[in-house]
Records
---
Amino acid sequence: MDPALEPYNNAPNPDKQALKRVGQIVRRRLAADPGAQKFPVEGAEIYGISDFLGPEECDRFIKIVDDNARPSTLYEHGQGSEFRTSYSGDVDRGDPFVKMIERRIDDCLGMTPAFGEAVQGQRYTAGQEFRAHNDWFWTKAKYWDGEVVRGGQRSWTAMIYLNDVEEGGTTDFVRLGLSIPPQRGVMLVWNNALPDGTPNIDTLHAGMPVIRGVKYVITKWYRTRRWA
Ligand SMILES: O=C(O)CCC(=O)C(=O)O
Ligand SMILES: [Fe+2]
């Protein structure tokens, strides 16, 4: 069996009702937002919002990412350190600029701010990538014991491209045949679950290798409950 399907088929889903609820809250919010464009794909809810950050805000965040960069950590290291080779870092949530942007993301999605994880910056230089993965947690993995008490399952992901990339670095939803090129200031938002609250295997996605240039993104993941 495709090992990627195993969690989908067999893992317990204690947050199913909460995933369904936040799915609906954000879906309604985005449907009412003329700036949010839904990608015409079957099988997952993915939206793009242009000019979510202005060029100066992007530059300011790029500097914050550079100042905080350290090798990415992963929940599961089984795949080896080449799995996610970008640099990532938590940013200072006390910084008023970071606060403002986090609030703007919360507001756009209509998500309870307390459900949001700290925004993370990521930098990929040429050759670096984030191989195909799902943002939701596999509830049969060891790390789940920690995550279940830290806000539970991940629901929506918001990711903002801080720059254009010369070549490569697309975000590919590999099961959907969707490849999204980085575009400065664009925010991608997707539901990691199906409308019924089941983690959605079809949200499998990769940050493809950067071929030329450097790629900067910030990511904010939302849980189903208060993140702690
Ligand atoms: O860099 C990308 O395009 C994808 C990043 C990603 O998947 C993540 O941060 O969860
Ligand atoms: Fe991801």
---
Amino acid sequence: MDVEHPAAATTMDVERQNVAHPAAAAADGEDRNNSDGVTSAAPANVDAETAAPSVTTSTSNRFESDSMRAKFDHSSRKVVVHNVLKFMRSKDVTKLTSSWINQYNSSNSNHQIQIVNARKPPKDSWIKVTLAHEEMVTPFITFINSGGKDGNALVNERGRPLFAKRVDEMLDHDDNDDHDHEDDESDATDGRKRKGTVHANDTPIDNDSNGSDNNGNNKRFKSDTQQKPSLSDDEVRDAITPLWRLSYEEQLSSKIREMVNKCANKIVKEIKAKFRTLEKEAKRGHRKEVIKLYRWLNQNRAINMQQPVPSPRTSEYRNKVEFTFGYRLVPEENEVVEEKDGSEGNGVNVVNNTNEASATTTTNERHDNAHDVVDASSASATTNAGESDVPNPTNTNNYRQVPAVGFLAQGWAGGVYPPHPLQNIPNWSCSIADILNTDFLPKSSIPPYDSKTHRGVWRSVTIRASLRTKECMVIVLHAPAKGGAGAREDGSDDYSSVFEEEKARLIELLTQSVLRVVERSFPKEDHDGSEDVTPVSSLKGDDNEAENGIRVTSIFFQEYEGLSNPGPDHPVQHIYGKEFIEEKLGNCTFQISPGAFFQVNTDGAEVLYNIVVDRIREVTSDPMQTLLLDVCCGTGTIGLTCLNQGVVGKLVGVDIAEPAIADAKLNASKNGYTDKSLAQFIASPAEKILPDIMRDIPRNTPVVAVVDPARDGLHGIVVRALRANEKIQRLVYVSCNPIGTLTRDAAMLCGPPTKKYPGIPYKPTMAQPVDMFPLTKHCEMVMTFDRMSKEEYEKHHS
Ligand SMILES: C[S@@+](CC[C@H](N)C(=O)[O-])C[C@H]1O[C@@H](n2cnc3c(N)ncnc32)[C@H](O)[C@@H]1O
């Protein structure tokens, strides 16, 4: 049964009316299942997962087919282009956006982009465009950010570079729509000025929220900063872990300030605005009842915000990392690597980069291409790549592009950077990056996928490992072996004949021994740009030992021809070892398959789930009779932990991702819950099934609910169902996007009743931030909502 989201339908209608492009109307009517042939390597996310990264994944999860998704979900098709002129007439906006499309389409005859709507607020310097299809987003962004002269950004009439970003990535800001890149100077790092020179947006690493990575790698510098041909280690840290210069205490302080100002205060503001709207409607005679502002909204600290709970690990905490295959820019004169056998045709190009860069060179900026000089035959050798993997930024001569894997710290045009300098990235993932960069890619006759030409094969690699079980899964995303959607007709970039051989070589390299410990150096806390670095071993003590035993236990390949990232249900090919990895949390063991979400900070997840357990325990007077609704349950972690802790006796979990639900069912039996009437898991979009589930709950069964949606928050139908059903007295909302979608959903759960959101509202009774992502601006939030008492409610409605 398809459930229409009325809000979505309305938006769509409005968009149709606002078509600003001649081509738009036609595009809108087209079957969006057809990918227009536009492809691009969606770069892997860096900081991804905040259950970030994964925005893209999560959105793509929501609907069963592309056409359904395209029909309902606009956010994943929206891009904001910054730095256009502030004052423009609407016909100039149309002219400008048409000129982008014409430029792109005329130089990419195989791949066409279409804009269905373009909107520019009168006094702002940005335009929000809605593309006809999600798969056009990455090429469009790449085009704006690097389709100009010499691979630089397009410029406005005054020569200022434009800057494009997905709307669903702009979640660090108060209001996505109102964000103006020119005003970025006030950073969220508490007003303390950063000591570095580079400013970058911090984007979640992985989608995983369901994590899907959503191109978090598309980090760009402020438009007023000239893009450099290469970045120093510190600049890479600035781009990907922007809080790294702060002590951990300072990081937590900056996060709590954000949570108070941009989450708690914003929720109160939004709810008050709803009251004002009702009042205005009453004054105009459109409504009879005037509802008095709920008392809690006028209290001093209306939302009880707790200090953030720190992450048990503050460095190398990620259990999942996603690298992009691309090219490393290596200055010609520094290039010492000898082309090895078989490297012919692997896409090494010479780039003439004339960008001016800083004239001073620090030790951190000294680069000698250590990866290239490491003897590929000595598997036990350790590399010291953290200090030396990018070219000297003072050198503005010719650059060679060397196939490499890593993070796109400054967009596709800036090349990939090794993960070694990043303190949130675990050692084992650097070890795999080294294998790929020193042993695999230099000898591979198959090139990385190029998001501009849509040719090439290797796209990204996702690695997930457990320090507790020592297992490690590697998923290699690749375009078809014949060379990607832009493959030449003459077949000269068809790699099918060597693909299987390369696959076998990769398996051999990844599995020949346990992952070796890579020596890395991190700056001391409160790094001020001096050369004071502390070797990782002394930072981590015994933990370093723990990593010694990790080995690759599963390998998957995933072929994907589309433009963005595949959804979690996209088929994978299992080519080595186990079909899942196992992770332990508390007393439970969980299996995780390639398409399933799992929190990226294992120790942090334990803390997070214990908080949820406590919030539920507070209200369950008869736990064994109590049913837990676990909405967006993933592999069943929260629900099964609650069963295991005895705070509830029954569980119904819902998740859109089939692989996650398959895991959840097995996880239930693995942890001793074989009786399906006690632990039931359903694969479905929550908005389709939740109203039915709630209707079927026996009248006398006490119910608590926990929701843990991806970054795009809850569907309106889910919010409505949770609000309307007064059996639920407590709702625990776990959010990886507390300053974005949590505020929106909270306002709908707690605002005065309307036709669309009827029922006695909730009120937020506790907000507990949990720092799952040290060094980045992201923060998880557990917000507890309790149903307002009937008595209190009626006072305001009399
Ligand atoms: C942040 S994860 C949380 C998973 C789980 N609670 C955990 O802690 O591991 C969000 C989950 O929401 C799921 N999801 C996304 N959209 C959904 C939808 N419309 N209905 C149900 N689940 C959805 C994703 O598949 C993902 O597993």
---
Amino acid sequence: MSAPDAVKIGIVSISDRASAGVYADQGLPALQDWLSRALLNPIHFEPRLIADEQSTISQTLLELVDTGCSLVLTTGGTGPALRDVTPEATLAVADKEMPGFGEQMRQISLKFVPTAILSRQVAVIRGSSLIINLPGQPKAIAQTLEGLKDPQGQQLVNGIFAAVPYCIDLIGGPYLETDSTVCQAFRPKSAIRTPQA
Ligand SMILES: Nc1ncnc2c1ncn2[C@@H]1O[C@H](COP(=O)(O)OP(=O)(O)OP(=O)(O)O)[C@@H](O)[C@H]1O
Ligand SMILES: Nc1nc2c(c(=O)[nH]1)N[C@H]1C(S)=C(S)[C@@H](COP(=O)(O)O)O[C@H]1N2
């Protein structure tokens, strides 16, 4: 079997208070922990902790795309508060919008909290990078990426990450492989790479 492709992933925590040191940031550790458990590929993380400033967020996303991140996950700043501008900053750097990710995240999150409808999270493609907004609550990161399982581990609602590897195939990125006990990635049969001797 050939070794899995290496992948560069940008992780961006967007929080006025965590970036100012008012509380310890839990967004970057939660993103890094979940991705390290879910992916079999060697990952190079590009972490950023920034305030809720639209221009800073857009600039950070552009820098991460330019540096070769195939995937960029943000957390925070998706709600209705005046300072919440992550979706606007993300749409400002988009080549294409991918509405299915936001729709599915709100569906998943509604199984956990009724206020899920307050999250305006979006996902976009820029060049060969997929950028996805996640809500700011640290526990929402695993919930939206992984979905909801019953106590036996049976998937009740698909998390959004199941669709991420194939999306990255389609934009010319590395072939992502997942640990199916954390996240069962879905690809059409014709897109599944046959193991090489
Ligand atoms: N990066 C983070 N690290 C730890 N906890 C966070 C983080 N971001 C959000 N939270 C927690 O989730 C709650 C809701 O997140 P939200 O993004 O709405 O924060 P906020 O009120 O906009 O403030 P801030 O931008 O200063 O984090 C916060 O009150 C906080 O308890
Ligand atoms: N899975 C999940 N989604 C969630 C939440 C949560 O606790 N868990 N919080 C909601 C709330 S209260 C808000 S205001 C919005 C936006 O949060 P953000 O501004 O931190 O991104 O996400 C929503 N989505």
